[in-house]
C-alpha cells in the first residue's frame, strides 16, 4: 500500500514538472489548468499524510521559504558583465568589422532576442537548485533563491547530478503583467508601468509567497561555470542548457552573414508585439568559443557580443496647451499638455518642454500634431512637430514675462536658459519648498504628499516648514479625504521626523546647490547644525567634494536672519540637529568584502608581508585571526600553504589566492 502510494507520489511529481515545463517554457500546455490543480491537490494530500516523503524539489515546495528581513549578498565567482549596445545597423556593421579584424573573415553569429527583464544567475549543485542571485553591480548580487524557486519554468532538479552556474533573464510574461495590473486596479493599488518594473518589484519581495503569485518566467542564455569540454560554440551551449530541461528561448538563430543578422532583426521587429513577453532589442553573439576567447572583454563587457536596441516607440498626439509652472528654485518650466496616448506601455498626458529655447527650436505651436516618445523608455518627450499637418489655426506660444503665481517680473540669471521668479515670498516657491521638505530623500514624512501640502498651504495653515510641527488634529481632519486613522498616522510621522539625522534636514531646507549627497557629506564632516552654520568658505571647501558654489551658497544662507530664525524655531520644536548616521569609516567599509569578516592568512605572500596584509584587511573592517575554525569566513592562501588550507577546504570555507586578494585591495 505504502509502496503504491509512494509510486503515485513519484509519478505525480513527474507529471506536474512536465506540465509546468509545457506551460511555462514551451508555452504549449497539453492539459487544462484545472487538471494541473487537481494533480497538485492530490500530491499535497499524500505529502500531508506522509510528511517524511517531502523533498525540497517537490513541486509543492516551491514556496517553502519564510519571509526574509533582508536579502543576503552573493559574490559572483565569475563577474556578470554588462553588454555594449548600438542603435543602428551602421553601428552593427562597425561591430562586425571589429570582430573580423581580430578573428578573420570566417565568423558565424547567433542572434537572440533581448528579453526585457532582469539578469539572474542560477547555481545547481549535484543537480539540485541551491542558489539564485541577481546581477547587482556585476560582482555582488543578492540572494533571491527563495523567490526564484517559485518560478515554475525553473527545474529544481536537473536530470543529472551536475555542478553548474547558468545565467539568463527573469521576466514577467505580458499575460501575467496584464493580470497583475488588473488585480491591482481592482484593489486600488498603484499600477506597474511595464513588465520589467513588475518583474523587478516581484523579485525584490522579501516574502516568496508574493513572488509566487506574480507568475514570472525565465530564459537562460549563458553560463558561468559549466563543463564546456565538448562544447565549442555558443549555439552548442544553448542546446546543452536546454538538454538539461532548463528554459531556453526558442527563437535564437545562427546567422552566417550580416545580411542574415539584419533579416533576423527585421523579422523580430515586426513580430515583437505578437510575442508573449517583452523584448527591447536583439543580441548578436559570436558563435565560436575559440573566437570569443580571442576577442576577450573590456572591464565592462565582452567584445564578442553586442545588443542592437530597438528605437524608442514613437506615437503622434496633439499639443493641446503649454502650461507654465514655478519650481522650488523659482525656475519657470513649460510643460506640454497632450491628448492622452499610449507609449511603451503607459498613458502619456504631459511632457516637460524644459525651457523656452526648446519650444523655439522645435517651433512648437498650440494645436500642433507632435511626435512623442519616451527617452530611455521612461520619460516622455516631444520629438518634433508634423508641420505638414498644420491647418493654419495653430497658435504660437511665448513665455510669460511675469510669474504666473505671484505676478512679479521674471528674470534670467547670468547665463541660464531658465526664467526665474526671484520673489522669496512667491507662494509657488514656498509651496514647492514645503513639498521638497517632506519628500522621501529629505524629511520623509509619510502621508504628507503634494496634495495635502497644497491644501494646508492654501488654507493658510502652514507658511513655512516650521509650521508643519504646530499642526493639530483639528487642522488636519478638516482636509479633504483625511480620516481619523490617516490624521493619527500623519501626526506620528511628523513627530517621528524630528529624530531624523542632520543630513535629511539639511537637504530638506532646499539650500541652493546642496543636494542629498552634499548634505550627507556636510553632515558627516561637521556633525552639528551649529558647527556647520558657523563654518567659513575655506572650512567648507576643505571638505572633499564641496566646491566654491556650494560653500558660498551655504554661507549666504546661514547669514540671513530669516533662515537663522527658521532654524531656531525648528530647534524649539525639538528637531534633532546632529548627524546620527554611521561614521565615515564604517561607510567606507560597508562595501568592502572584509567588513565584519574573520580572515586567516596562510602560506607565503609574494607582494606583501603578513603584517602589511593584516593591516590592509583590518583597515577595511576585517578581523585577522591565527587559526582556521568554523567561524572563519575567508582564508587567503599564499605559496606553500599547508594544514590551514586543508582545514579550510574540509570546512568548506571560502579560499582566495594572492592575486584575488590584491585585486580586492585595489
Ligand atoms: S547576454 C555580458 N543575451 O540584457 C552580459 N543578455 O543590456 C551577457 N539580456 O545584462 C548578456 N536578453 O540582463 C544576453 N539573449 C540575451 C539577453 C540578455 C536580455 C539582458 C541581460 C544583460 C542586459 C544587457
TrEMBL record:
<keyword id="KW-0464">Manganese</keyword>
<dbReference type="InterPro" id="IPR004150">
    <property type="entry name" value="NAD_DNA_ligase_OB"/>
</dbReference>
<keyword id="KW-0235">DNA replication</keyword>
<feature type="binding site">
    <location>
        <position position="309"/>
    </location>
    <ligand>
        <name>NAD(+)</name>
    </ligand>
</feature>
<dbReference type="InterPro" id="IPR013840">
    <property type="entry name" value="DNAligase_N"/>
</dbReference>
<keyword id="KW-0520">NAD</keyword>
<feature type="binding site">
    <location>
        <position position="135"/>
    </location>
    <ligand>
        <name>NAD(+)</name>
    </ligand>
</feature>
<keyword id="KW-0436">Ligase</keyword>
<feature type="binding site">
    <location>
        <begin position="82"/>
        <end position="83"/>
    </location>
    <ligand>
        <name>NAD(+)</name>
    </ligand>
</feature>
<feature type="binding site">
    <location>
        <position position="406"/>
    </location>
    <ligand>
        <name>Zn(2+)</name>
    </ligand>
</feature>
<dbReference type="GO" id="GO:0046872">
    <property type="term" value="F:metal ion binding"/>
</dbReference>
<dbReference type="GO" id="GO:0006260">
    <property type="term" value="P:DNA replication"/>
</dbReference>
<feature type="active site" description="N6-AMP-lysine intermediate">
    <location>
        <position position="114"/>
    </location>
</feature>
<keyword id="KW-0460">Magnesium</keyword>
<dbReference type="InterPro" id="IPR001679">
    <property type="entry name" value="DNA_ligase"/>
</dbReference>
<dbReference type="Pfam" id="PF01653">
    <property type="entry name" value="DNA_ligase_aden"/>
</dbReference>
<feature type="binding site">
    <location>
        <position position="421"/>
    </location>
    <ligand>
        <name>Zn(2+)</name>
    </ligand>
</feature>
<keyword id="KW-0479">Metal-binding</keyword>
<feature type="binding site">
    <location>
        <position position="169"/>
    </location>
    <ligand>
        <name>NAD(+)</name>
    </ligand>
</feature>
<dbReference type="InterPro" id="IPR013839">
    <property type="entry name" value="DNAligase_adenylation"/>
</dbReference>
<feature type="binding site">
    <location>
        <position position="403"/>
    </location>
    <ligand>
        <name>Zn(2+)</name>
    </ligand>
</feature>
<dbReference type="InterPro" id="IPR003583">
    <property type="entry name" value="Hlx-hairpin-Hlx_DNA-bd_motif"/>
</dbReference>
<keyword id="KW-0862">Zinc</keyword>
<protein>
    <recommendedName>
        <fullName>DNA ligase</fullName>
        <ecNumber>6.5.1.2</ecNumber>
    </recommendedName>
</protein>
<dbReference type="Pfam" id="PF03119">
    <property type="entry name" value="DNA_ligase_ZBD"/>
</dbReference>
<feature type="binding site">
    <location>
        <begin position="33"/>
        <end position="37"/>
    </location>
    <ligand>
        <name>NAD(+)</name>
    </ligand>
</feature>
<comment type="function">
    <text>DNA ligase that catalyzes the formation of phosphodiester linkages between 5'-phosphoryl and 3'-hydroxyl groups in double-stranded DNA using NAD as a coenzyme and as the energy source for the reaction. It is essential for DNA replication and repair of damaged DNA.</text>
</comment>
<dbReference type="InterPro" id="IPR033136">
    <property type="entry name" value="DNA_ligase_CS"/>
</dbReference>
<comment type="similarity">
    <text>Belongs to the NAD-dependent DNA ligase family. LigA subfamily.</text>
</comment>
<dbReference type="InterPro" id="IPR041663">
    <property type="entry name" value="DisA/LigA_HHH"/>
</dbReference>
<feature type="domain" description="BRCT">
    <location>
        <begin position="589"/>
        <end position="666"/>
    </location>
</feature>
<feature type="binding site">
    <location>
        <position position="285"/>
    </location>
    <ligand>
        <name>NAD(+)</name>
    </ligand>
</feature>
<feature type="binding site">
    <location>
        <position position="426"/>
    </location>
    <ligand>
        <name>Zn(2+)</name>
    </ligand>
</feature>
<dbReference type="InterPro" id="IPR010994">
    <property type="entry name" value="RuvA_2-like"/>
</dbReference>
<dbReference type="InterPro" id="IPR012340">
    <property type="entry name" value="NA-bd_OB-fold"/>
</dbReference>
<dbReference type="InterPro" id="IPR036420">
    <property type="entry name" value="BRCT_dom_sf"/>
</dbReference>
<dbReference type="InterPro" id="IPR004149">
    <property type="entry name" value="Znf_DNAligase_C4"/>
</dbReference>
<dbReference type="InterPro" id="IPR018239">
    <property type="entry name" value="DNA_ligase_AS"/>
</dbReference>
<dbReference type="GO" id="GO:0003677">
    <property type="term" value="F:DNA binding"/>
</dbReference>
<dbReference type="InterPro" id="IPR001357">
    <property type="entry name" value="BRCT_dom"/>
</dbReference>
<keyword id="KW-0227">DNA damage</keyword>
<dbReference type="Pfam" id="PF00533">
    <property type="entry name" value="BRCT"/>
</dbReference>
Amino acid at each position: 500500500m505504502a509502496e503504491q502510494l509512494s509510486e503515485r507520489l513519484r509519478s505525480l511529481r513527474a507529471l506536474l514538472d512536465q506540465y509546468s515545463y509545457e506551460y511555462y517554457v514551451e508555452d504549449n500546455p497539453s492539459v487544462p489548468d484545472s487538471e494541473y490543480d487537481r494533480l497538485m491537490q492530490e500530491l499535497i494530500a499524500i505529502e500531508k499524510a506522509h510528511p517524511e516523503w517531502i523533498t525540497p524539489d517537490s513541486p509543492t515546495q516551491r514556496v517553502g521559504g519564510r519571509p526574509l528581513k533582508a536579502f543576503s549578498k552573493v559574490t559572483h565567482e565569475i563577474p556578470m558583465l554588462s553588454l555594449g549596445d548600438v542603435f543602428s545597423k551602421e553601428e552593427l556593421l562597425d561591430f562586425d568589422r571589429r570582430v573580423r579584424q581580430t578573428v578573420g573573415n570566417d565568423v558565424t553569429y547567433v542572434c537572440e532576442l533581448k528579453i526585457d527583464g532582469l539578469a539572474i544567475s542560477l547555481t545547481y549543485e549535484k543537480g539540485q537548485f541551491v542558489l539564485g542571485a541577481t546581477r547587482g553591480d556585476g560582482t555582488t548580487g543578492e540572494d533571491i533563491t527563495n523567490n526564484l524557486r517559485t518560478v515554475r519554468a525553473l527545474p529544481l532538479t536537473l536530470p543529472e547530478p551536475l555542478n553548474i552556474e547558468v545565467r539568463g533573464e527573469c521576466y514577467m510574461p505580458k499575460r501575467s503583467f496584464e493580470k497583475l495590473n488588473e488585480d491591482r486596479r481592482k484593489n486600488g493599488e498603484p499600477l506597474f508601468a511595464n513588465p520589467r518594473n513588475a518583474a523587478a518589484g516581484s523579485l525584490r519581495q522579501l516574502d516568496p509567497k508574493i513572488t509566487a503569485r506574480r507568475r514570472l518566467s525565465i530564459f537562460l542564455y549563458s553560463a558561468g561555470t559549466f563543463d564546456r569540454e565538448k562544447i565549442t560554440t555558443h549555439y552548442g551551449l544553448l542546446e546543452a542548457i536546454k538538454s538539461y530541461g532548463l528554459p531556453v528561448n526558442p527563437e535564437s538563430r545562427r546567422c552566417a552573414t550580416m545580411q542574415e543578422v539584419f533579416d533576423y532583426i527585421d523579422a523580430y521587429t515586426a513580430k515583437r508585439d505578437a510575442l508573449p513577453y517583452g523584448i527591447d532589442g536583439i543580441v548578436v553573439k559570436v558563435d565560436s568559443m575559440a573566437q570569443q576567447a580571442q576577442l576577450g572583454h573590456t572591464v565592462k563587457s565582452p567584445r564578442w557580443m553586442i545588443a542592437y536596441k530597438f528605437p524608442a516607440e514613437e506615437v503622434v498626439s496633439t499639443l493641446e496647451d503649454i502650461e507654465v509652472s514655478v519650481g522650488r528654485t523659482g525656475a519657470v518650466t513649460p510643460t506640454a499638455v497632450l491628448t492622452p496616448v499610449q507609449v511603451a506601455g503607459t498613458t502619456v498626458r504631459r511632457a516637460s518642454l524644459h525651457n523656452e529655447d526648446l519650444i523655439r527650436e522645435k517651433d512648437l505651436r498650440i494645436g500642433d500634431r507632435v511626435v512623442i516618445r519616451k527617452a530611455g523608455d521612461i520619460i516622455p518627450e516631444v520629438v518634433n512637430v508634423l508641420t505638414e499637418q498644420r491647418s493654419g489655426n495653430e497658435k504660437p506660444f511665448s513665455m510669460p514675462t511675469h510669474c504666473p503665481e505671484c505676478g512679479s517680473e521674471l528674470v534670467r540669471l547670468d547665463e541660464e536658459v531658465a526664467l526665474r521668479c526671484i520673489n522669496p515670498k512667491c507662494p509657488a516657491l514656498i509651496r514647492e519648498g514645503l513639498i521638497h521638505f517632506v519628500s522621501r530623500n529629505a524629511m520623509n514624512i509619510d502621508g504628507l504628499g503634494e496634495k495635502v501640502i497644497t491644501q494646508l498651504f492654501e488654507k493658510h495653515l502652514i507658511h513655512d516648514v516650521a509650521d508643519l510641527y504646530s499642526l493639530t488634529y483639528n487642522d488636519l481632519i478638516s482636509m479633504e479625504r483625511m480620516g481619523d486613522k490617516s490624521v493619527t498616522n500623519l501626526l506620528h510621522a511628523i513627530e517621528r521626523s524630528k529624530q531624523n539625522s542632520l543630513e535629511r534636514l539639511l537637504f530638506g531646507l532646499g539650500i541652493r546647490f546642496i543636494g542629498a549627497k552634499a548634505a550627507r557629506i556636510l553632515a558627516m564632516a561637521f556633525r552639528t547644525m551649529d558647527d556647520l552654520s558657523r563654518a567659513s568658505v575655506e572650512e567648507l571647501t576643505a571638505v572633499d567634494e564641496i566646491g566654491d558654489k556650494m560653500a558660498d551658497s551655504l554661507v549666504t544662507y546661514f547669514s540671513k536672519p530669516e533662515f537663522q530664525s527658521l532654524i531656531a524655531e525648528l530647534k524649539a520644536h525639538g528637531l534633532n540637529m546632529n548627524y546620527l548616521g554611521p561614521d565615515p569609516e564604517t561607510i567606507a567599509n560597508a562595501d568592502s568584502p572584509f567588513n565584519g569578516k574573520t580572515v586567516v592568512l596562510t602560506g607565503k605572500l609574494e607582494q606583501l608581508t603578513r603584517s602589511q596584509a593584516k593591516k590592509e584587511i583590518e583597515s577595511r573592517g576585517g578581523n585577522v585571526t591565527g587559526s582556521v575554525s568554523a567561524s572563519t569566513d575567508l582564508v587567503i592562501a599564499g605559496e606553500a600553504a599547508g594544514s590551514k588550507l586543508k582545514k579550510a577546504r574540509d570546512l568548506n570555507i571560502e579560499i582566495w589566492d594572492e592575486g584575488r586578494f590584491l585585486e580586492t585591495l585595489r
